[in-house]
């Protein structure tokens, strides 16, 4: 077999609570930021589908786990909903805790290793009303919630993730208006980013100080920044994009400190957030045991082409322009470039420059609009997704054969799921979700992935 992986390699899938659970008010679940966003700004959601239109995993997990077992995945990442487990942000809802425990027991019994994310974009509304990530009270409340999760589920979970893609709620919520609270304010973005890192570090330190069983990490969406040319201005632009969107979380998570070049740049423009030496010490002593990498597409960067108006507010894009790679292969329906080599470049960078930290690909997949176009005899024939996954897995295999410490691959997602403002616009699943009947229909990729897992590789 051309691409054979080692025996204990994870072949799994990833999802998140708000995107699959539904039943938004059951067991006294409190409204989360995304429940609130939908209740108040419904028009922004694709075809007005909200979190309740998800596939109802909260009540269907037993059947869905059977499907996972049938495909043969050996690991599965999902998240706990803080608003469901602790509706007031502090007090455990025993009924919800019991359901999460039962879900974990079912995964274990099916031979599927649970990987649990504590924060995948969705926070209890009451915490957002206290200031969200701008508030240190919320940072401490999050650390308390994490401690409760370790106590409640630690005997069933060996792999913990603090945050999924922490940069995304910062970009979306405080810079580019696609996540709650839909602001455009760099000072808030910088403070929320720092406080998110602090929350992560407090949880990691607790986990290590208490010798909690298992390992803890973070999931980052790393987007390699490729300069348009070797011209120093293009290279500099790519370096700055990399600082803002990758290294701002990668370096503190792995090295315990912020990149000096980012600190210098923010200081120069008077945009440093408020930090205390004590908080920097907390970050300094927190190191993750493993890293999850979500990879979808690279960032193509060139030097800024137009002058910035002196009155425009500070933004990362002051320093670079993005461009579309001529002749690129593209996921036309998502508008994203397909560049499997990016996953190899990330893994190689981690091997060479970050101590070859244990890493797994925590999300990779292809979102397609109007996927029913490819329906044949009741099944979506998604050869494009098979090609996408195969190409990325070949690059992972190459990186591993050169010494990368990559120990797994999670495809996004198992069943089509609800995706924030995009709702069901881009279908990613190995199974199609029929929204009107809630039926789960295997796509060709589900069978292909099952075969690959059985053979531990592919040709
Ligand atoms: C990642 C998130 C997922 C999911 C995915 C696809 O950034 O971790 O939660 O949303 O992107 O997003 P979309 O449906 O917008 O293509």
UniProtKB/TrEMBL annotation:
One of its GO terms (molecular function) is beta-glucosidase activity. One of its GO terms (cellular component) is cytosol. Keywords: Glycosidase, Hydrolase. It holds the Pfam family Glyco_hydro_1. The keyword Transit peptide does not apply. Coiled coil: none annotated. It comes from the Bacteria. The active site is at residue 363. InterPro entries: GH, Glyco_hydro_1, Glyco_hydro_1_AS. Signal peptide: none annotated. One of its GO terms (biological process) is carbohydrate catabolic process. Belongs to the glycosyl hydrolase 1 family. This is Glycoside hydrolase family 1 protein. It comes from Dryocola boscaweniae. The lineage of its organism: Bacteria, Pseudomonadati, Pseudomonadota, Gammaproteobacteria, Enterobacterales.
């Amino acid at each position: 077999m051309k691409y054979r992986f080692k025996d204990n390699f994870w072949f799994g899938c990833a999802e998140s609570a708000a995107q699959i659970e539904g039943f938004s008010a059951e067991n006294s679940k409190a409204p989360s930021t995304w429940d609130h966003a939908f209740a108040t700004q419904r028009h922004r959601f694709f075809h007005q589908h909200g979190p309740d239109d998800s596939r109802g995993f909260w009540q269907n997990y037993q059947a869905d786990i059977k499907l996972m077992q049938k495909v043969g995945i050996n690991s599965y990442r999902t998240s706990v909903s803080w608003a469901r487990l602790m509706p007031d942000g502090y007090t455990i809802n025993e009924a919800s805790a019991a359901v999460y425990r039962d879900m974990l027991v079912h995964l274990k019994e099916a031979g599927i290793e649970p990987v649990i994310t504590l924060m995948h974009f969705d926070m209890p509304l009451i915490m957002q009303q206290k200031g969200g990530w701008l508030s240190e009270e919320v940072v401490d409340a999050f650390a308390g919630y994490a401690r409760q999760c370790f106590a409640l589920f630690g005997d069933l979970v060996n792999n913990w993730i603090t945050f999924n893609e922490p940069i995304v709620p910062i970009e979306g919520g405080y810079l580019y208006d696609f996540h709650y609270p839909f602001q455009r304010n760099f000072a808030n973005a910088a403070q929320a980013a720092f406080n998110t890192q602090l929350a992560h570090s407090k949880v990691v330190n607790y986990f290590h100080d208490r010798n909690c069983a298992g390992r803890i990490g973070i999931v980052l969406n790393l987007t390699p920044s490729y300069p348009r040319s070797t011209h120093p201005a293009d290279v500099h632009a790519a370096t700055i994009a990399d600082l803002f969107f990758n290294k701002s979380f990668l370096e503190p998570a792995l090295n315990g400190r912020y990149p000096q070049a980012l600190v210098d740049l923010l200081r120069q423009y008077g945009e440093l957030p408020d930090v205390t030496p004590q908080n920097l010490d907390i970050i300094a002593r927190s190191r993750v045991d493993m890293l999850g990498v979500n990879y979808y597409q690279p960032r193509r960067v060139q030097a800024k082409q137009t002058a910035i108006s002196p009155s425009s507010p500070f933004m990362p894009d002051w320093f670079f322009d993005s461009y579309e790679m001529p002749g690129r292969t593209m996921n036309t329906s998502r508008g994203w470039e397909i560049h499997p080599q990016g996953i190899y470049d990330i893994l190689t960078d981690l091997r060479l420059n970050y101590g070859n930290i244990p890493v797994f690909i925590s999300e990779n997949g292809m979102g397609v609009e109007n996927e029913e176009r490819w329906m044949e005899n009741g099944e979506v024939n998604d050869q494009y997704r098979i090609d996408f996954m195969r190409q990325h897995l070949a690059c992972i295999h190459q990186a591993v054969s050169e010494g990368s410490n990559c120990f797994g691959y999670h495809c996004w997602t198992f069943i089509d799921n609800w995706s924030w403002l995009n709702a069901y616009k881009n279908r990613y699943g190995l199974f199609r979700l029929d929204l009107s009947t809630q039926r789960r229909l295997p796509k060709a990729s589900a069978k292909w992935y099952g075969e690959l897992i059985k053979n531990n590789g592919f040709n």
